[in-house]
Design a protein that fits this description.
With 253 residues, the chain is α/β, with parallel strands linked by helices. It has a domain of 163 residues: P-loop containing nucleotide triphosphate hydrolases (Rossmann fold). It is built from six helices and twelve strands. A hairpin with a 6-residue loop joins strand 1 and strand 2. The longest helix is centred in the C-terminal third of the chain and has 18 residues. The structure holds adenosine-5'-triphosphate (ATP). The site of adenosine-5'-triphosphate has 12 residues, from strand 2 and helix 1. One of its GO terms (molecular function) is ATP hydrolysis activity.
């Protein structure tokens, strides 16, 4: 991919890719009740790349899977591309098709299909979305080339290194031109050089393709790649502003 003058953070007036309002999630009930997320509020603009930090058990995966329409919140609202998609635990869209069309996921482990090759793993995401095989095949090859693994397109997943697999996973996440990308510790299995490359890739993708990106990470070595840093603690989200911790709704804590 060629670096371009578009590789800059989005202006404050850029439309929102993601907005969450007062998300709350309660698991279990009675003695086993856990409030995993409360008043979790965040805005991500098109083209913005956001890191979500925080200790184990803070609620990061709960937040990400709520936005990914995998794990509905107990209450609060989720807006994607200006559309209300979750109102409390009630989906406002056809979840499966919305997810396929608009949301790209990258997980800690790549979740690729082992018995397919790299190209087929990317291609299948587009075919499931209704693209013709020839069109899907061509785009899969282009994406793998763009991500620097074009020469591994015909290799089975088990023959690729961890970093190469993660690049294929990113290609698959981009296949249907999602408007948002959600990544849960995508560099946890990578050494620091590859981890950095994958994070920089997210930045380029966000800035050049205009997608809103949230990356859950513990990897403090790569934080300068991000436009905005948030921290989650005990189920609540705070925004980092020049050394201060600011609540996502604007109040300084
Ligand atoms: N399915 C579930 N049932 C009950 N409690 C759950 C469930 N999933 C998560 N929790 C609890 O909710 C809280 C938040 O968990 P979550 O996985 O969202 O945190 P996290 O910040 O992603 O943690 P980590 O960094 O370790 O992945 C934790 O206390 C966890 O034990």
């Amino acid at each position: 991919m060629v670096e371009s003058e578009q590789d800059i953070a989005p202006a404050p007036s850029t439309p929102l890719a993601i907005e969450t309002r007062g998300l709350r999630k309660v698991y279990g009930s009675g003695n086993t009740e856990v409030v995993a997320m409360h008043d979790a509020t965040m805005k991500v603009r098109n083209g913005e790349v956001v890191a979500l930090l925080g200790p184990s058990g803070a609620g990061k995966s709960t937040f990400l899977t709520a936005i990914g329409l995998i794990n509905p919140p107990t209450s609060g609202q989720i807006w994607i591309g200006g559309k209300l998609v979750m109102d409390g635990s009630e989906a406002q869209v056809d979840v499966r098709s919305f997810r396929r069309k608009h949301i790209g996921f990258v997980f800690q482990k790549s979740n690729l299909i082992d018995f397919l090759n790299a190209r087929e793993n990317v291609q299948i995401a587009m075919e499931l979305n209704g693209d013709r095989p020839r069109v899907a095949r061509q785009r899969a090859i282009e994406l793998l080339e763009e991500l620097g693994v074009g020469d591994r397109a015909d290799h089975r997943i088990s023959m690729l290194s961890g970093g190469q697999q993660q690049r294929v996973a990113v290609a698959r996440a981009l296949a249907n031109r999602p408007s948002i990308i959600l990544a849960d510790e995508p560099t946890a299995a990578l050494d620091s050089r590859l981890g950095r490359q994958v994070m920089e890739l997210f930045r380029r993708i966000a800035h050049q393709h205009g997608a809103g990106v949230i990356v859950v990470t513990h990897d403090h070595r790569t934080l300068e790649v991000f436009d905005t840093l948030y921290e989650m603690e005990d189920g609540a989200i705070h925004k980092h502003v020049e050394g201060l911790v600011q609540r996502a709704d604007g109040e300084v804590a």
